Amino acid sequence: MYFLAILTIMYLTFMLVLNYKFFEFIARYNKQSSNKLKKYNLHIWCGIILVISIMNPISFYMRIPKQTIPIFEILLILLAMIPFMLKSGYKPQKDFKGITKFCIVFPIGEEILFRGIILSLATYLVGSRAIYIPIPILKGVTLQVFLSAICFGITHFQYFGFKFNNATINKVLFAFVFGLFTGNLVEINGSIIYSIIFHIIANSGATLYYLKNSNNNKVDTL
What we know:
single chain; mainly alpha; two-stranded antiparallel ribbon; 9 helices; 2 strands; 2% strand; Abortive infection protein
């Protein structure tokens, strides 16, 4: 089980990082097959998540939260999320399907994958040892949260064409910090419910900001 946990984390992170590159490679030889794989990409990942969930006895934090979050804390969290919404750099498709995927489907899938599966497997690897990484504001996070946040951050390189410039690195760091926050939230409450909700809010805010800016640019060019 220990080896399987390590292998699963490495495989999921590796495949997510190279997801789009894989499609580009297939397209060189068979563009039709590449397009079909892209079309069913989400279904494939849902299938992988389902298989891992069935094979593993771990709950993956898929349960009711242990406690409710006070209104004041929710407001503070929402305020802290504003920079993520404004600086995300994402440009989702403007049709209903694209917006639905980006604002609802992707947040749910990513939280199940990173804060559910990968965080649970990292917790299993660390064991009962309480190893904390000093992080400002959060007053330190556990090693397993730190590892899952690194995986979450690294996989976001693909969204920006694997360009190692300041803009991309900043956005990947934003994803890493968001991963620290949501991972910490999951550990405190023992559930991914809140992290899913805040992820949906973050992506929805980023989408609204992008749509507003793109519409303003259209007006400016008229």
